[in-house]
Design a protein that fits this description.
By secondary structure, the protein is of the alpha+beta class. The chain is built from 7 helices and 5 strands, in the order αβββααααββαα. Strands 1, 2, 3, 4 and 5 form a 5-stranded antiparallel beta sheet that branches. It starts with a helix and ends with a helix. About 15% of the residues are buried.
Length: about 350
């Protein structure tokens, strides 16, 4: 909303720059009083003049219009860039929150199983089938799972609070979904980089800033050119002397003579700002390219990692089932069973 208001202000500035080419009119009352000169003229009265004035710096004003046009485009692109950043922040927070919720659900289910195993182990220890060490180890693993559950629930609470902050909507306990259509094939890197360099709003905003700076250079150069001003007064009713005067006009053309140092300083400053804007544009392009290349590499790595994680998950489930079966018949230790369970939770 704040950036949107700045965009609106840029639109207003564009209209203000366009208004510089329009004459300004005002209506006023002019009262007068004077000593009598014996000529029969009135001593006091009121004139009703309609005043109009026109001020124009032909070169600078025309380039000022171009500058505010570039400023409007820049503000629009900055608004879109801010929108993209906000959507990405919401998306990241949503995924992390859903991930924490699923981890918490997994830990709750695991704790129920581990507590049952602790009770089973305690009975076996009392029957002198297992050692007390096995009971202590089982209780320790259960307590560690409870600590992990506290951390996961904390992540869920903070994630939901952050979502409410980012969206301005009370999330509460409403269910969250991270459904996202992921392409099966990873697009080529070069077209993605080229498209980002042409369409990313922060790049377009940087281009707009360069255009603004270039217009400021021309505005500064316009200080060498003459300025035009015109004033026109039309009397709707005139009581003062001479009462036969209907209108007056004045046209001025002003040429700066002894402002060379100031104008040159303005030009040098504007040129320096232009170079800085071009450097910022180059930096933005490199930053965008870096973002795309990093995201492309991470996406490819995540795809390969997901494939291996599926294999690991299948193996961990099989290992846990095997360890439970061997433990039931006395061919595996409780430590081996708990290790298999930890491996499954880690996946």
């Amino acid at each position: 909303a704040v950036e949107g208001e700045r965009y609106v202000q840029a639109l207003i500035e564009r209209r203000r720059a366009a208004a510089a080419f329009l004459p300004q009119f005002s209506f006023s009352l002019a009262g007068f009083a004077r000593e009598s000169a014996g000529s029969g003229d009135p001593k006091r009265g009121v004139d009703f003049p309609l005043d109009g004035n026109f001020r124009l710096d032909p070169v600078s004003d025309s380039w000022e219009v171009d500058r505010v046009e570039a400023a409007v485009r820049t503000r629009g692109h900055l608004l879109h860039a801010l929108q993209d950043d906000l959507l990405l922040d919401v998306g990241r927070t949503l995924v992390e929150t859903v991930r924490a919720e699923r981890r918490a659900d997994t830990l709750r289910a695991s704790i129920v199983i581990q507590e049952a195993r602790v009770d089973d182990t305690r009975g076996r220890v009392e029957a002198e089938v297992l050692r007390p060490f096995d009971l202590v180890l089982a209780e320790s693993r259960t307590a560690a799972a409870r600590v992990d559950l506290v951390d996961a629930e904390t992540d869920v609470a903070t994630g939901r609070a952050l979502l409410a902050f980012l969206t301005g909507i009370e999330i509460g306990a409403r269910p969250l979904s991270d459904a996202l259509a992921v392409p099966d094939d990873l697009p080529a890197l070069a077209p993605l980089v080229a498209r980002a360099g042409e369409e990313r709003p922060e790049v377009l905003a940087a281009v707009g800033l360069v255009d603004e700076a270039a217009a400021r250079v021309e505005i500064a150069y316009g200080g060498w050119w003459p300025k035009i001003s015109a004033d026109l007064t039309v009397f709707l009713d005139k009581r003062s002397t001479p009462d036969t005067l209907d209108w007056t006009g004045l046209l001025e053309v002003t040429q700066p003579l002894f402002r060379a140092g100031l104008i040159e300083a303005d030009v040098r400053t504007a040129v320096s700002q232009l170079r800085a804007s071009r450097a910022a544009h180059a930096l933005t392009l490199r930053s965008v390219r870096h973002d795309v290349e990093r995201a492309h590499a991470r996406f490819a790595a995540d795809a390969r990692r997901l494939t291996e994680l599926r294999v690991r998950l299948t193996a961990a489930k099989s290992a846990q089932d095997l360890a439970d079966g061997l433990w039931q018949v006395g061919l595996a230790t409780n430590l081996e069973r708990l290790t298999a369970q930890d491996d499954l939770l880690a996946v």
